[in-house]
Amino acid sequence: MKKLFLLMTCCLIIFSMSSFGQDSDAGMQAWMTYMTPGEMHQMLASAVGDWDTKATYWMNPGDDPVVSVGTTTVEMILGGRYQKATTHSEMMGMPFEGISITAFDNATKEFNNVWIDNMGTGMMTCKGIYDEDAKKVVLKGTYVDPMSGNEEPFMETFQVVDNDHHIFEMFTYPDGQEFKSMVVEYARKSGM
């Protein structure tokens, strides 16, 4: 299986290189620009380290909030091109673990995020932009509601307050109305 994967990868690279045609120098430069981490990757890398988290979430509009504390470890992977964040906490009295992979795509100028956790078997995916005025990354996507089976929209925002404090917010849309369903406050662990 590994040999098949390597063969397919090599074929893809060769195909990509041959598609540059006679203008291979320009094509190679475009590819180098695409693969080189830039300013937005540096912003993602500024979160590398260990964090204490306080998650406040609401199951439904009008419900009392539920608070959960935990930890998150952030690292950059694949040569500083992607941010991986691993979270451990408790949710509904059960151990909770989640992994986020965030990318900034140099070609589309968009952030992309994939979230997986032990409370389900699906993936939440979203993409969006850095809102310069609000100083937030704003991502929109969909998830499948396991109770209804329907695909539902959601929005996430991520804000760097300062080097040691970040805020994540999640919004869902029950009955078509925007509802802030979660806020996670990140505080960098001291000594990091």
Notable characteristics:
single chain; 192 residues; alpha+beta; Lipocalin; 2 domains; 10-stranded antiparallel beta barrel; 3 helices; 19% helix
In brief:
The chain has helices at residues 2-18, 24-35, 39-45; strands at residues 49-57, 66-77, 82-91, 94-105, 110-117, 124-131, 136-144, 151-162, 165-172, 179-188.
Give the CATH superfamily of the largest domain.
Calycin beta-barrel core domain
Any idea what the shape is?
A: globular
Order of strands across the biggest sheet?
Answer: 1-2-3-4-5-6-7-8-9-10
Unreliable runs? none
Helix content: 10-25%
**What CATH architecture of the largest domain would you give?**
Beta Barrel
What proportion strand? Answer: over 45%
Number of spatially distinct domains: 2
Please tally the helical runs, counting DSSP H or I stretches of 4 or more residues. Answer: 3
* CATH T-level fold name of the largest domain: Lipocalin
**Spatial separation of the terminal alpha carbons:** 41 Å
Computed over alpha carbons, the radius of gyration is 19 Å
Q: What features would you describe in this structure?
A:
The protein has 192 residues and is an alpha+beta fold. It folds into 2 domains: 2-35, no CATH class; 39-188, Beta Barrel (Lipocalin), CATH 2.40.128. The chain is 19% helix and 51% strand. The chain is built from 3 helices and 10 strands. The chain has helices spanning 2-18, 24-35, 39-45, and strands at residues 49-57, 66-77, 82-91, 94-105, 110-117, 124-131, 136-144, 151-162, 165-172, 179-188. Strands 1-2-3-4-5-6-7-8-9-10 form a 10-stranded antiparallel barrel. A hairpin with a 2-residue loop joins β3 (82-91) and β4.
